Amino acid sequence: MFDAFLLDRQAMRCSAKTIEHYTYTVGGFLSYLDARGVTQPAGITPLHVRGYLVGLQNRGLKDTTQHAHARGIKVWLRWLVREGDLQASPMERVAMPRMDLRIPAPFMPADVRKLLDACDRQTVRGARDYAIVLALLDTGLRASELVSLRVGDVDMRSGVATVVGKGGKQRMVVAGAKARGAIVRMMGLRGPAAAGDPLWMTTTEPAKGMSFHGLQTMLRRLGVLAGVEPCAPHRFRRTFALWCLRDGMDLHSLRMLMGHSTLAVLQRYLALAGEDLERVHKQHSPADRLLSE
């Protein structure tokens, strides 16, 4: 039954990452059910779902991980209802795990300078790392989108690049002059390359295109070297959003550049600008500035 679900997701052209998500989340729940002798969909109850989610809590998993498991299970159970294997989803009577409201901190300008200073631009690897930092900061690309770039994808005159994001949706992003200059320097040190070659290469022998996990490892290493932690791809994406908002970019343009289908996700980035609101209020407070003693 689960294999049929995965086949359905593949037929919907879900990405490999999405399939991996369902395999991990629903697969864990299936193992839990199997250990309790539940082998048919009709035997699944809300109590089973709650018990599994509480087990995740007791294992000390992050709230975001617990929520991801619940989402995967919810989609699978709904699919079983559509397929006629269940009359109603047990998940309808189970509350989703609550996630703590927290706003991960973006990079400060001084952090980015430390990361850039830690790159030895005289070497191929250092020039590559320098270019990656600027490219992530200047485009807001997801990690998977960045590592999928090919040499010919970025127009070095305009900085425009077309990327394929979530759900196979294409969008345009733009790399500024500094990021393009860093890429050109990297390519000069790297040597000749065809338009279809990966833009970001490993420095191992033989060299190959950088992977998602390779990018994470490279940034983690650079963060330790620069004394800037955590240093992860998505932190650059949050920083891109915040700095663009601080500089006056409108939400619609930011949504298009970041590849969000709605403005809902961007509301979280607006919260990151809370410190800006405090500063602006101090500058323009009616009571403090306009009312005389």
Mean pLDDT: 86
Q: What is the structural class? A: mainly alpha
Radius of gyration: 23 Å
Order of helices and strands: HHHHHHHEEHHHHHHH
What ranges have pLDDT less than 50 throughout 5 or more consecutive residues? none
Task: Describe the global form.
Answer: globular
For the biggest β-sheet, the strand order reads 1-2
Strand content: under 5%
Number of separate strands: 2
Which bin fits the share of residues in helices?
55-70%
The termini sit apart by 75 Å
- Output the number of helix runs: 14
Q: Report the major sheet.
A: 2 strands, antiparallel
Write the layout of secondary structure elements.
Blueprint: H1 2-11, H2 16-35, H3 46-58, H4 63-82, H5 109-117, H6 124-139, H7 143-147, E1 160-164, E2 170-174, H8 177-190, H9 212-226, H10 233-246, H11 251-258, H12 266-272, H13 274-284, H14 286-289
Antiparallel strand pairs: 1-2
Helix pairs in contact: 1-2, 2-4, 3-4, 5-9, 6-8, 6-10, 10-12
Question: Key features?
Answer:
mainly alpha, two-stranded antiparallel ribbon, 57% helix
Give an overview of the whole structure.
- This protein is mainly alpha-helical.
- Helices cover 57% and strands 3% of the residues.
- It has 14 helices and two strands.
- Strand 1 (160-164) and strand 2 form a beta hairpin.
- The longest helix is centred in the first third of the chain and has 20 residues, at 16-35.
- The radius of gyration is 23 Å and the shape is globular.
- The model has no long low-confidence stretch (mean pLDDT 86).
